[in-house]
Write a structure and sequence with these properties.
With 635 residues, the chain is an alpha+beta fold. The protein contains 19 helices and 17 strands.
Length: 635
């Protein structure tokens, strides 16, 4: 089977293998400008086939017409060290020089134009048939003598564990192809030659195989060699180099022998004219040559890396030589790619489709059963939840009904009390949802009673407020009042402000504002103790406010007065006109209340009742006179 070697068909600015990463920037390692077409390549030349050893590296950037040597040095042959180096340098492509002892290189002059098919035929005839396609590469060198096809193969040799762990996985370059790139970098002017003597590293010197000579030269045609030499034959090295470099062979052979005499691995020599052209065609050469100990030392250490970088930055016909792969595509493919390839086979795809169809049919019948099994527990939970919800709705309706039917009795009593002006005394109060509001009491005069009725209408709590009975006597106006409770929950703003004018002032005048409440209450209690208790419910004297007791359906309440009335058979001492005239408003009020209650007591002597009613009238007149008098003035 014809195995066509890899040959690039992309343009000079082909696809890259990654993006530059951040890292330290020096004069030699700062990144190429994003506005130019410069490409940066990192080439690794492992010294030993072991992950514990070090690698020599070369970093170069450029395009078709320009080359700049960025940095050369040594890095540890580990994945982390190489990743850090690649990130620091910002290389977009990474290449690795393959082991020389496992590589082959062939050169044949070919007529133009050179096609991939013709290169495939040459590869089939000149390279070993057991070399896999992914380990073959081919390219074309154009020189003054014509065109030469370069065929390389990597058929054996040690590999490096870190190759498979780098992402993207780097391509490999045959060492013989690196010498071709080095001559291309020097300008391919005749005559030119370069040679590399590679000594493999082995644990024991007695086990070391013969060294490998790599040589490339341009005389009338371009030629390459890759052979193993016996250095005990002095003419073997010169003859091999003379085959590719003509008359330069003897000179390069003597130089190479001198360079490699004290080395344990390899040495590289290049003719003086080609080496001089390298210095003029590559920026940074002189700087790095001075750091390495001279151009010859730099070339001996990094010639293969320099050549591989020159191939990668060269034309597409040479860049294709940098396409050897460490593993096959199947070995590099991931699980998804392997699965796709397996499904690409018609027989496998039909089997998978049949299995999927059978599974879908079975799932079609099993899905309702599974859904039913999953919904049954949920349905039971929904029934329980529905029952709980119905119970919650019923309970909420009951609470709403209770809230609507239950009256805030304390609030209603407070609102009635706040609507009562001065001079209203309530003897009876009843609040009932069936009968509404019913009041009984006395007022100082008809004007006060009319004001009380008006205030109750203003609250908005009641409607149909009417006075059922009104009887005028010498002690005031006795009345019965009724109303319908329209809005028991309505908020009512107090009609009178007792904070601005307290009840004590309203009852006893401005002089009582500074009196101690304790002393006033003591006086009232003392007057009550002296007068005794009533046998009936006591009326309440509320000046500006009335109080009442309530129950759930019907409430009757009375509030004890501030002065006590005599019990049955008890008498109050008579008051002379002089004593009444000398009383202040507070004293007159207490005496007026006590005698008014005493006059209403049952079983009292008619003469005594007449005396008490006369004193009540005189005390009422005295209260009015005392309250109308200016503060601090005489009555």
């Amino acid at each position: 089977m014809n195995q066509t070697p890899r040959i690039a068909t992309t343009s000079e600015g082909g696809a890259t293998q990654g993006a530059p990463a951040s890292g330290p920037q020096t004069l030699d390692s700062r990144r190429p400008s994003r506005t130019t077409s410069l490409r940066r390549v990192l080439v690794l030349s492992p010294a030993h086939p072991s992950p514990q050893t070090e690698c020599e590296f070369v970093c170069m950037e450029g395009d078709r017409d320009r080359r700049r040597l960025v940095e050369v040095g040594v890095v540890g042959a580990s994945v982390s060290a190489i990743r850090d180096l690649r990130k620091r340098l910002g290389a977009i492509e990474t290449l690795v020089v393959a082991p020389p002892e496992g590589c082959l290189i062939r050169a044949r002059t070919v007529p133009a134009p050179v096609t991939p098919e013709s290169l495939g035929l040459l590869s089939e005839g000149l390279l070993p048939p057991d070399v896999a396609t992914y380990r073959r590469a081919a390219g074309v060198v154009d020189h003054p003598g014509g065109s030469t096809a370069i065929l390389t193969a990597w058929h054996s040799g040690a590999t490096w564990p870190w190759l498979a762990e780098l992402n993207p996985e780097p391509m490999l370059v045959a060492p013989g192809a690196c010498l071709v790139g080095l001559l291309h970098l020097a300008g391919l002017s005749t005559p030119a030659a370069v040679a590399c003597l590679w000594r493999p590293n082995t644990p024991r010197a007695s086990d070391a195989p013969p060294p490998t000579l790599l040589a490339a030269g341009l005389t009338t045609n371009f030629a390459t060699r890759s052979i193993r030499l016996d250095l005990d034959e002095p003419d073997a090295l010169a003859g091999a180099i003379r085959d590719v470099g003509g008359d330069l062979g003897n000179t390069l052979a003597s130089e190479l022998s001198a360079v490699t005499a004290n080395l344990t691995r390899s040495g590289v020599v290049m003719d003086a004219q080609a080496r001089g052209r390298l210095a003029t065609r590559m920026e940074g050469w002189d700087q790095h040559a001075a750091s390495a100990g001279g151009p010859a030392s730099l070339l001996s250490k990094h010639a293969l890396g320099l050549g591989a970088a020159a191939l990668s930055l060269g034309p597409a016909s040479l860049r294709s030589l940098c396409s050897l792969e460490h593993r096959s595509a199947d070995e590099r493919a991931g699980a998804l790619e392997r699965a796709s390839a397996w499904l690409g086979v018609r027989k496998n795809a039909v089997r998978v489709a049949a299995a999927a169809l059978s599974l879908a049919i079975v799932a079609l019948f099993l899905a309702p059963l599974a859904r039913l099994a999953a919904l049954e527990p949920k349905a039971a939970a929904l029934a329980a939840g529905e029952q709980a919800r119905a119970e919650a709705v019923r309970r909420a309706a009951l609470y709403k009904q209770l809230e609507r039917d239950r009256w805030p009795m304390t609030k209603l009593m407070s609102d009635v009390s706040a609507a009562a002006p001065e001079g209203i005394t309530l003897d009876f109060l009843r609040l009932s949802p069936e009968q509404g509001l019913a009041l009984a009491g006395s007022a100082r005069d008809d004007a006060v009673l009319a004001g009380f009725q008006t205030n109750l209408n203003k609250t908005g709590l009641f409607d149909n407020v009417k006075i059922d009975r009104s009887e005028t006597s010498s002690s005031g106006v006795e009345f019965d009042l009724s109303a319908r409770v329209a809005s028991p929950h309505l908020f009512v703003k107090p009609i009178d402000d007792f904070a601005a004018r307290p009840l004590v002032v309203r009852l006893y005048g401005e002089a009582a504002a500074v009196a101690s409440p304790t002393s006033v209450r003591a006086d009232e209690d003392e007057a009550g103790d002296a007068d005794g208790d009533e046998s009936e419910s006591d009326p309440s004297q509320l000046s500006g406010a009335s109080s009442a007791a309530s129950s759930s359906n019907e409430t009757a309440a009375s509030t004890p007065t501030r002065t006590s009335a005599p019990s049955s058979g008890g008498t109050l001492a008579p008051l002379t006109d002089e004593q009444i005239s000398a009383m202040d408003a507070g004293t007159a009020t207490r005496e007026w209340g006590a005698r008014r209650r005493a006059s209403r007591a049952s079983g009292i002597d008619p003469a005594e009742r007449a005396r008490l009613e006369s004193e009540v009238e005189k005390l009422n007149a005295r209260m009015k006179a005392a309250r109308s008098a200016p503060p601090g003035g005489s009555p």
